[in-house]
Amino acid sequence: MAEEDIARNFFHQTLDKLREEKDKEREVEQKKKDKMTSAYASLHQNIIENRGVLNAIQDVKMYEKIQKDNEREERRKHLLKLDKDPNEQFLMEERFEKYKDRKKAFEKKTEEGKEMILERIIREEKNRKKQERKNSNLHWMDKYDSQAMKRNASRKLPRVKLHKRSHTSAKKYIKESEREKERGRDSAGEVDKNSGSSGEEILPEPEYRGLWEIYSKQKPPKQEPKLISDESMQKAMEKLRTGIVRKQVAAGREFKGLPFRSQPDTVLFKDFEINKPYLKKVQLTNVSYTVNYCKFVEVTDNLKDFCFVEFDPPGSLSAGLTCWFQIKFIPKIDIDIEGAVCFMTQSGPFEIPVSCCMKKCIVSLEKERIDFGRICKGEKARKCIELKNEGIIPTDFTIGDIIQTETTEEIQLEEVEQSQVQLDENQGSGLEIMKTELIETSYIKCLKSSGCLEGYSETVVEFEFTPHEAGVEVRDFTIRFSHKGIEPVICTVCAESVDLPIFLEKESLDMRICTVGYFYQDSIVIQNQATNSMNISNDIPNSLNNIIQILPKNALVQGQNKLNIQLQFTPNLELWNEMYNLYFDSENGEFQVKFNFLVKGQTLPLPFTLYATVTRAEIIFDKTQINFGTCHMQECITSTVQLTNNSLLPQKIGFISMPDFITISPEDGFITLVPKEECTLRITFTPDKIRFNEFSLTCKTQYDRDYIIHCTGKGVQSGLQLSHTKISFRSTIIDDFSFAKIHISNPRIARLSSAKVRGVAPVNTNRIFQFEVPDSANIRITPEAGKLEPGDELKICIEFSPIIPIQDIIDLARENTKEEVTSLEGGTNSKVSILEKKGSNVMLGKNSKLNMDVPVKEKIKEDSPAWCEAREKLIQMFEDKLETFRIPCYVSIATQSPTVLPDETLHLEVTLPSTKPKLKVNCLQGKCVDFGECLIGMKIVQKLELENISNQEITFKVNPLNVNGPFEVINTPRPIPPGKLFNLVVNFVPETNELCHEECIIYYDEYNRISFFLTAKGVEPEIDLLDSQDNLMGDELALGDVVLNESLEYIFAISNKTTIAIDYWCELSDLDTGNNFTGLPAFNITQFHGVVEANSKKDITIIFTPDRPSLHFAEKIKIRINKKQNYFTFKITGRGHEMNLYPHHDYIHPKDIMVDPYPKRYHDIIKVIIYRKIDDDVTTAHDVLKITNIKHRTTGHKPNGDFLLEMIEPIPTRKAFLLEPMKSVVEAGTTFEVNITFDPKQLEAGEIRQLAYYKLTLKGDVVKQYCLLLRGVDATHMLV
Description:
One of its GO terms (cellular component) is cytoplasm. Residues 123-203 are annotated as: Disordered. Residues 364-426 form the CFAP74 second Ig-like domain. With 1280 residues, the protein is α+β, with helices and mostly antiparallel strands.
């Protein structure tokens, strides 16, 4: 019973658990259903909300498609302009895109194939390793004991080089022994596992513990596995080891090292030849403690094909006994071979190295550095080095010239200091070492520059050092060999030369610049480091005795002392021409004299050089006489004198004892002229009296030389006076202008009688004046002539405006045109500058004859491209100029026949500085920037490109434009670096239909400016909408009837009558009556955005595609022109039908509507009410039922249709209605009319209205039935 209760409890627990699981599953399913329901609801809501988004997305896609079509069309036009085939270009691009897609697909397929192959290789590698692990337990590969082999491999073999193979074999032996131990453990573990698996039975465990636990406690007894002990394993290994290697122990000492020693230690085959056999006999000696044996094993792998060993095993050898073996070497390749012969003994293995060397040339240098030590100047020393060839092949060697070492000067100085220290240690001298410098000129030579170095021989190379100056020399010699495999050897030779005991502190003396006729003196220091005194003298040429003198000529310099000798230099003008070719350097004009100081008892003299630059102290005047001519009392006349300092020294000059009416500038005539300087002096004559002046000006220099200038001038008095006789304009650029104002007056002069003064014109009378402007001056004087009464004053305006001469522009333009024609014909014609060809001044006045009458052979219009190009080129070629003009003003007495009074002629001196502009406007067309035409209310943005053509940064500002005008500068001016550009942005927004014109002025450098005009024209747009018949469109456009899911296209046009292209945007209003079931609009526009060219029209297509039946499809279209809102607005309507046939009636009375007695039989009801009016004279009433057949837009449909009228129920008054015809065929695209006649006479007495029902059957694409309800009313018998 207890067991049944336990089982029952477990059963109930299982059932409860199953119920819980089912409840959880139901909850999960219910949650999934709720989640899906909410997802569907949210999706439905999102679709409803996102209909507008879908419309926008469709518009965007349509816009992108149109953009692509426009871009394709533009590109097609561009290719056609380039004389290319656009269809071919587009086809090539499509093929290239397909090629790239195929290439990507192929690369992807290749990558997938590589991955599959890699996975297969990895899988096969895993299977191979798994198979190797299974097979490794089947072989017993332990042959040697690992400990013994490790001990033998760790022994260091002196004087014998082990080959790599011996180490690898030892390592292999150790690894095999370790594998054997691991294999033993693994086998023991496998035995344990197998025993455990065979002795215990595994039963499945139930879900709940029950009676199974009672039976599971009765387990069979376990059997412990038998393991192999470590002792048995060690014994097995000992048995194996005793047969191979044993330790040697003698007298309690264990032998360690190589058991046998070879004689020779290394088998060497030297300078072998290919295919020639070589035999070597090697002796082996037992050097172990006891009896041992020797067994040949093998030779290393790299010797197996070339070396063969003949060894007869001698058996057991006692200690100290020897045996022999022969090794035969047959070379087959010409390379060095290294290997070993392997032997096995009772105490372990050993190897004998084998080296095979081919024929070589091995060159070595005894030492790479030679140090000569310290040697005095003028002495000679030699040192040798040995060059050895340790190979059999001879070679030639050459010792090259000097090669500068790659080390820096600091490293060379360190080497010098080290060599000096070594010399001091070796020589033991207590003298103080002076700091030396590197010698620039080489005094080290190699006495043997080439030779032949035989095999196994040596040669001696000798170097010689003969210094002539003090210092340190380090030189590298390169020894090159003719053998290709030998690299060059560098031998460094260093030496130090010591100065002579007597020397000059300075070996040259520079007297700088010396003037002819003056005396110069300096000292020369001679120092004696020796302990005894020495006599010195010189060898100056006799021809220089009057110029150079050394005092004293012969001198005695005491030991360890110095002596100062005086050198006197006196340049003489008389001997200048004789010495010039001998002692003067023609390149730099220096005077050079080289001589020696001779020391008695010393072979090497002391060289000395004297340098001096000799010059003359003279100044050259370009004129020595000046005639100022006639000058008025209130005026002044200036004359210039050019001075040139031909001396190499600066000179101070000054004018002394000058008259009061003479002024000299600059600095009042006291100036300093630097060497070779040219200076211009301005001498101004201002008369103070009416007389003739004759005087002289004296110029004195610092060298007490006088220069005299003779001058003459006459002072006179004029009746008219100028407020200013000199005018200096500011620097003015081309096409700019500058103004100046002066006054001319006729003053009253207090004089008793003008007739009493003889030779003077009468005063206090009317006078006439006239300015005569030179043709080459770009100035205009206003007024040029006039009349002044006594006491009157008149203002004179002077305008300066530099320009480019028109004739020069025309000539250059014509020349450029000729060059273009010549280049087309295949010829070449070099351009010649107009300025160089004419040799005339570029500046020319506005009123000159050249500007008025230009002899033009070929007419070149002003502001044409050729004109502008030539003008810009001449402006770039223009050079800054400073011109001065003396403009005469002729004066005469106002009479009937006036004559010029020469003594009263006035002069106006005008200084005209002109320069080319630093700032240039690149987009100018002459003097204008044309914005073109622009629609009123629109905006044109023009970038004026300003270029800095100077070498300095320019800061500019723009003169403010008219605030109420159409032009506006929208960006801020910024500094322009040299050679850079700046875009000045100007907007043009017209408000009226007229031509706009405004001046723009740009100022820079305070006074300079550029002025040009901005021109544009505002245009009033003239836009019309035209229907398909090119008639003006109204406010509504009816597209007609369309079968569902078919499309109707209607084309209207936007006509642009203006001379400017316009942009248009078409938008559809969001009306509920214009959408389909899908939420998308039923009306679509293909070209909703585009450009209408000037004087042309643009076709726009409207597509009507209904998907639901409705008679009230409608949308509003808004057309914006150039982003103006609601420029055009009209309504489009359409009707959608399920089939191609449909009936319709024009009039339905709203008062009489009857309920359909047959609502379920027919699709629709057509109600027709016919009235007969009271005042009608006719006896019957008529109406029309229309049946229309819509023409399908697609193929595959039945073109024609037919209809049939049948009376539903016959009534007594059926003769009151008459329908003709009752059936017929309706052709596609036509409307058929059914005439309905109502005759009230057929009514019964007392009836005023009658009903009739007809069945209308339409057969088109589908068959559809209608109920036609006819109601006739006789209005003559009813009260209205």
